[in-house]
Design goal:
313 residues
Length: 313
């Protein structure tokens, strides 16, 4: 099992058409492994939040048919993360051969190894009052030492090793994002949606902005039946000097908050932009704000809560 050592970020591969098989070289496999009690489960949750398809306690031999299925069936999944541990030693022994076979297929693989000191692992197991999977009626430390010996070769060949001995779960999340996606604001995904105040203020937004101070295109006969997604309406809204001043200030404030969120292990932010009916001003401002945030390298999605009302009219 020979791999080059690197802690570089695991980049996203380019996607093929939804219904076309993906070449193996465009598919990524991450193995999440390491010492029991070192944080594998939390790491798996974080990786899933990053967009990976995660399976837990997968026998290594099943990796090959699973990858084959996902690359030949037109599946939209192109990044698979598998939590591999020593709960079933006979299966675990197959891992080296499986990794070699995946390399032969051209599948990109990345091994993430979670570790912690024996002292910390003992304390964690005692706090949850569960036996170690390799304890077998013996002392807890015996199971930990046996597992460490079994995993020594895998740790040696891991791409990323994180020692969680002195990390909280939030600090572990930050370490994982830094290792796999980079650091700072770019680890935060943003969703912007427009809404109409007359239909209620959203409950799930981190930020709510009111753009009813801008002139309303509804009162312009040629624009009334259009929406903020139409260029004439967008031009009308964004040409107002107050709109530019607002966007400049709001973009700056949002970026300050996003950088802070990244440091505090908050990687998803929802921004709501509201006007009276959610058809014109909020849509145009939301789209423009999305473009500005994307220019900072952020991943931004956009939706318009009330546009279905316009479609029914």
């Amino acid at each position: 099992m020979e791999k080059n050592h690197t802690t570089a970020a695991v980049g996203q591969s380019s996607e093929t058409a939804d219904n076309e098989p993906k070449p193996a070289k465009e598919f990524e496999v991450m193995l999440i492994t390491g010492m029991s009690g070192a944080g594998r489960s939390h790491a798996a949750d974080c990786v899933e939040d990053m967009g990976w398809y995660v399976v837990d306690n997968l026998p290594p031999k099943l990796l090959i048919p699973l990858v084959d299925m996902m690359t030949s069936s037109g599946s939209k999944v192109h990044r698979l993360a598998a939590v591999i541990d020593v709960r079933s030693r006979s299966y675990f022994d197959d891992l080296s051969a499986v990794l070699s076979h995946l390399d032969d297929l051209g599948v990109r693989t990345h091994i993430l190894f979670l570790d912690a000191s024996d002292k910390v692992l003992v304390r964690r197991y005692e706090s949850v009052r569960r036996p170690h999977p390799l304890q077998h009626g013996n002392r807890l430390i015996d199971g930990i030492r046996e597992e460490r010996e079994l995993l020594s070769n895998l740790k040696e060949h891991a791409d990323t090793v994180i020692d969680t001995s002195n990390l909280s779960i939030h600090q572990l999340s930050t370490k994982l994002y830094e290792a796999l996606m980079g650091s700072g604001a770019k680890t935060v995904s943003v969703h912007i949606f427009s809404f109409g105040f007359k239909y209620g203020i959203p409950l799930d937004a981190d930020f709510v902005a009111d753009v009813r101070f801008l002139p309303n295109p509804y009162w312009v006969p040629s624009l009334r039946e259009l929406t903020g997604q139409d260029k004439p309406v967008s031009d009308y809204v964004l040409s107002n000097e107050s709109a530019k001043e607002f966007l400049d200030a709001y973009e700056k404030a949002i970026m300050v908050a996003i950088k802070g969120y990244a440091q505090e292990d908050k990687h998803y932010v929802t921004i709501a932009i509201g006007c009276t009916g959610g058809q014109h001003r909020s849509v145009a401002i939301g789209n423009e704000l999305a473009q500005r945030l994307r220019a900072h390298g952020l991943s931004v999605t956009v939706s318009a809560r009330e546009l279905h009302r316009h479609a029914r009219q």
